Structures are given as C-alpha cells and as structure tokens.
Amino acid sequence: MTKPVVVYGASGYTGRLICEYLREYHVPFVAAGRDEGRLKSSMESNVAGIETADYEVVACDGSPEALADLLSGASVVCNTVGPFSQLGPAVVEAALAAGVHYLDTTGEQDWLITCDEQYGSAYAEKGLLLAPGVAQMYTTGEIAAEVALERPGLDTLDIAVFWGGSPTVASTLTILVNAALAGAFYLEQNQYQPWDPEAGLYQLAIPGQHELALALPWGGTSHPVWYKRDPRVANCKVLGGVFNKPLMLGVPQIVAAAVEATKDMGPEEKYAALTATASQVMSQMPPRENPRLNKSMDSVHASGPLGRAHVVIHGNQNYKQTGALQAYAAYALLQQPPKRVGFASGCQAFGHRELLGVLRSFGLVSEPVVTVEG
Predict the structure, then answer these.
(1) DSSP H helix total and E strand total for the chain
(2) For residue 198, what pLDDT is reported?
(3) Higher-pLDDT residue of 123, 292
(4) What is the pTM of this model?
(5) Which end of the chain, C or N, has fewer beta carbons within 10 A?
(6) Nearest to 28, CA basis, from 60, 44, 6, 59
(7) What are phi and psi of 216, to 5 degrees?
C-alpha cells in the first residue's frame, strides 16, 4: 500500500527532521530522493526513533515519469529539493497531475511568485493546497505578524527574522542562485518594489540585545508574496540574518563575488558555477541543533494610521521548527481540507494560532511577547 505522505529530499538535513516529526505524529511516509543507499543510511543513522516509524525508502531520479510514479496514490508531498526555481516545477506539476497537496521549504521569492501566478488557480480548481515556504524562516515570522494583525486597522508590517546556526548545503546554494538569477522585492501599497541590490548590510535594533544586528533582505522572503492579496496589509518589508556577526559580514562579499563571476554565463553554466561556489562555502551537513545555541527570534512591528503593535517570538532549533511545521501540515491535510486551497501560506492554510500551538507543544518557541500602543 502506498504511504500517504512523500518526503522528497528525505536524506537532506531538513528532510530528515520532517521524517522525525512525521514519526511523532504516527504518519506513514515514503522517504524519497535520488540515492537509495544514502536515503536508507540517512534514515537509520540520523532520524531519531526511526525503528518505530512506518516508512519505506524509494529512489526517484526527478524525471516527470519517476515523480508521477512516486506520487501516485499519495495525498501530500513535502518537497525539500531546491533550488526550487530550477527543480520545483517538475514536482509541482507531478503533484497537480496526481491530485496531491504540495508543501515545500523554499525561501526563494521568485519561486513563490511563480507558484502564485502560474499554478495557484489550477491547484484551487482541484481543491488542492499549494503551500511553498512552510519553514521557520518564514512561517514563524508569519505567525508573529498574524498575532499583530489580530488588532484591526494595522496595514504595515516591518518584520525581522533572526536565527542562530549554519545554513545547510542546499540553503547556501539557494541564497547564491536567488541572488544571481532573481531580484528581491518588498511590498509597498500592494505593489512589489525592488530592494536596492547595492545597499549591503542593514543595521537593526532587535529585541533582546543592546548591540545592533546585521541583516539583509535575504531574497525578499515569502511574506510580501503572501500578503500581496491580503486586504489588511498594504506594506510589508522583511530583513533577516544570523546572530553570528562575522558570518553576516561575509555574506554580501560571497554573494557579490558569485554574481560578478557568473554575470556573462548562460543559465546552465551559471547554475553549475553557483553550485561549485556553494559547495566551497558550505560542503557538509551542519551538526544536529543544540537548543542552547541554535536560537531564533521573530520580531514584527505592525502599524496603521492610529495604532501600533509589536510581537516578538523567541524560539530555538530553526530546522526542527521547520520539520515540525511540515509534519503537522501533512498530518492535518490527511484529516480535513485546509482553510484555503490553491496558493496559500502555512497560516492561511492551517491557522496561525494552530501553528503556534504546534511549535509551543514541541518546546520550540516561547509565548509571543505582545506590546500594543494606541
């Protein structure tokens, strides 16, 4: 019998954690990816409690035919295989054809816009959910924004997302590909406006520390896309970064050098060169997260003509937050339809209070700190 959930890219850092939390929810799953041997060893060596999970390992080369076979009979796919702008369309199209709900962990703004504009209506017509970007770096900040928006009359979101830890191999490549091949946008009066690519690092005063933190638009993030069609929100800007200042100081130089070195290349040559650069920057899996070291902070200032609210969510273990959010989303979709079909964010599909409860139940975030003025 086919398992109801497929984790595509299960041997990667995030994929393993999704499998771990699917086990906690007692959801049977297929651990899928290119290399069967790597998948098998990854499950057995890196997924806590895997011996009590109901799962099978399936190799898939990523071709349309293989993806069709992989998703046949499934209900949900959790896709962690990026860069999504390159590799996502094949999975989204296969899921749509198979009648499967689609979740992924992307941070690529251009891919979100593609999902919204090219695939959203087709998914909605089939009653299916298309939810890219269900991940700590986007969804936890979205939860904070939604808590702020519980107060009516606030139409502007100023969001800061910070985390402690190293980017994975895949997310390093995603950062470089996004910077070299796509722009970054914020939302101003419901229209996308480009961030200045030459602006460099921004200094932010973030809650919980005296020292200014360093941030970047980080590809624009998911939030401006999610809120573009939300009548409550007209403006949305997001900056993000890691708490590690030396690492942040190095990011613009690495990105600028990669963009400059590949500017005259064709798309395939450029992608190959960016892949090589990414592997030099980050060539191995980060260690399993330590909650004392790997902290997260999501801060949202929401404002309107006559009111303000500030919401802060402190948390830990960013990648575990992603694993828990993905697993809960899949678990929920097996039991009832989402709150919204077609293109939707995690909060739009499942409810921000519900997702906050999930993260709280696993000890991954603290209760939001809410300050309201006016």
Answers:
(1) 14, 16
(2) 83
(3) 123
(4) 0.94
(5) N
(6) 6
(7) -135, 160
